[in-house]
Every structure is written in C-alpha cells, then in structure tokens.
Hints:
Blueprint: H1 5-15, H2 17-28, H3 34-40, H4 54-71, H5 76-94, H6 131-134, H7 137-163
Helix pairs in contact: 2-5, 4-5
Zinc ion (ZN) binds near residues 30, 31, 52, 89 and 93.
Amino acid sequence: MPRGRWKAGLQALWEQRAGFLVIVFMANLPDIDYLPGVLMGSINVFHHWYTHTLGWIAVVSLAVWILWRKTHRAGWSVFAVLFAALASHLAVDLFSADHSVPYGIMALWPFTDTFYISPEPLFWSLRKGTWNDVFQWYNVQAALYEAAVLLPVLAGVLLYKRFAPARGRAEP
Ligand SMILES: [Zn+2]
C-alpha cells in the first residue's frame, strides 16, 4: 500500500474544498425552514414541511446543478451527488425521533402528502422550542450521539478511499 495516500486524500479534499462546502451546505439546506419560524419567534412552526420532500430536493439539486455548470464542468454525476447530499438529510430525519406535530416528513411529496417516520428512531430529537431550549447539554449529547452513530460510516468511506485501488490515474 503506497504511503502518503492519506496526505494525498487530504490534499485532494483541500483542492476540492468549494465542492465539499457546497455538499455540506446542501446536506443542511432542508432545515432552512427554521428561518421563518425563528423570525416569528417560534422555531418549529414551518419545520418538516415542503423543504423535507422528494419534490423540493429534486428541484433544488437541479437548480444548483444548472448554476454550478455555468462556471464548472459538471456532468450528471454532479447532479447525483447534489441530490444525494439533500436526500441524506431526509434519510437522517426519517430516522430521528420527533416529538412535535407534524411527526416525520412528507418524504414522497408530490406523489403523496403522507408523513413518514421510522417507528424505531436511530437519532435523538433536539430540544428547540425556544433559544433557551437550544443551548443545553442534552442537545450537545444528542449531537455527539449522532456523530458517534455516523462515524463508522465516515470511517468506512475513508478506509475505502484509502485502500481501494486508484482508478484512472497512476499511483503516486
Ligand atoms: Zn431537517
């Protein structure tokens, strides 16, 4: 196994930081529905509605892809990555505990406006009725627990990238 692949991987990540930041932004974008609630003083009022749907993430990933193509070479695989980043948010929310109405998300809208949620939540529900609720140790624990659950996934991806044979380019 050639040494230096970790360093090369980090360097590649740094070189592609704009794309990486776009993906992180996209993965969190559905929660933009907190903003109107924040402005109205009730954080959850508009949360878990249309920004957490298949239709919304399809339109947004298509729009961002079209904009991205104006300045970068970007084939369908870039659209797929943008869509996957948004879809990952829906997947995590489907497996998160939800203690406020509406329970779950309309994941398949516009095909159906049924709300879906896993009967066995994998992640904790954050406490966020007010700003005082947000800044508490319970929410830090919930975030740490979520990170711990997802860390093996990240480790698996990194190990795959580390040990999978390089494709389309010579070994360093
Ligand atoms: Zn969400």
